User: Fold these one by one.
Assistant:
Number 1:
Amino acid sequence: MVINVYFYTDIRAIKPKEGTIYAALSAETPKGEVWVTHQDKVNANNAGANVKALHDIIAGDKHHIDPYKGSRIVIHSMSPYVTTSLYTLKKWADTGWKTSKRADIAHKEEWQEINCNLRGNQFEIINETLESEAVKGFLAKFER
């Protein structure tokens, strides 16, 4: 089974600012396509808001990917920070969640939980833009 994970924030600032995060996952099941969505207000910078959105849909209180353990996960990312960080998860875990200068990585707890919940699943990352059809379809789930 393939699980598609999407996340987005309207925060573009480098300094913390109030905004909204949007996250969702979709899966094709024997009963049809299933969508799980999550939306929340946050006070964060762009990187922090994107990490929180991804965290909340993958590793948040409900652990949305648990029912699909063993599935292939496709993460649709518009955030270069998150994309780079996802490729660095194994290295961070091996080095005690430290940077090359031995400081704790930013958003350490969220990354640890994301890493824990992605284990046992193959995942790939697709770099998306706001104009891509996949992202437009995901964001349409939040329109009223």
Note: The CA atoms of residues 93 and 112 lie 8 Å apart.
Number 2:
Amino acid sequence: FWGRDRGESATLTHPECRRRGCASAVCGQLISACEALGFSLYWGCEADNHASLGLADKLGFSDPRAYRLLHFEQGPLLGA
């Protein structure tokens, strides 16, 4: 997700590749590339996703905050 000068990063790692440093390497490069372009990233994950929280901490995202996810159902299209 991008908004103005900030973006949210997300990473999915294939189960066979987990615990090998792949996500750390890819996310580290993404952070560096975004910062070089003047963008900052924030980390979003579920509160019980301990692997993601650990990676976020390792990469320097150290200010955890609770948030609410809002989901809007799509209604019928007007004129359809």
Note: The mean pLDDT is 83.
Number 3:
Amino acid sequence: MIQILVSACLAGENCKWDGGNNKNDELLDFMKRMEGKAEFHLVCPEQMGGLPTPRPASEIRASDEAVINTEQRDVTAEFLLGADLALREAKKYQCTIAILKERSPSCGSHGVYDGSFSHILTDGMGKTAALLAGYGIRVVGESGLSELEKELESLSAEAKANVPSPKAI
């Protein structure tokens, strides 16, 4: 069975910085279709790192990679702790894939906001996404779900094709 780590906010948990969520119906449908083939493990690295919900919005400052919130407080330590605890969860369940919230300073995998709080995206990864990827866990944002599902279906079909047929007795 495939083990997949998932940003809890995408599954509808109210752990987003503003107290809401980023519920993604495509993800929830994917999770239903994968029943019996995959297990999903929800995490919110920011809460795991000790930050409250709601909390001031945070971004990764491009100049030094520090995570700064809208109150100009450096919350890098909380983000790194949350990343470490999310990695521990991934290892505990032997997750090989993580579906994480795009553009998040924790979970973004193909660009994050630059720390100016002006909605400017820059290349880079969130603290959790980078740590997971560094340990060989495939990190996918919510916009990559359909591609991921096609790949998993293809792998499943290949595995079924390679199963030897029962021999006649």
Note: The mean pLDDT is 94.
Number 4:
Amino acid sequence: MANIQIRAATVDDASDIFHFIRELAIYEKAEHEVVTDIAGIEQSIFGGDSTVRANMCFVDGQVAGFAVYFFNYSTWQGQNGIYLEDLYVSPEYRGVGAGKALLHSLAKEAVKENCGRFEWSVLDWNEPAIQFYESIGASAQSEWIRYRLEGEALQRFAADTI
């Protein structure tokens, strides 16, 4: 049985986080969309005004994966929630409980912080992840469609006079 440890990330983990971000982007066929670098990770996750947190996962003492999350808010519940932005475990460490341990650490954080929800998104073609999430009791929210403004569209809309 693998020895799995989860701990809060520190700025010293920025290069490992960046490595995992690139691995995840390659897996999701979107490597070209990664525009940050290690300095960007240091500032955005560990900078003084950051609202982002991260956990690192180790299997038998080797860095195996990470989770990046932040607190959101539900007006209906009147409570914070946790939104999991990214969770990634390197392929050689899958199947030993590393992903489940990362999710469990965030679920514990959500309960400790009196959060009403713990949410994330998954690509509709990522069947292994979908099966994994359903195996722990998570359910898809199929009635919601996620929208995004980014890049030029975001700049253009922000510049529009209303």
Note: The mean pLDDT is 96.
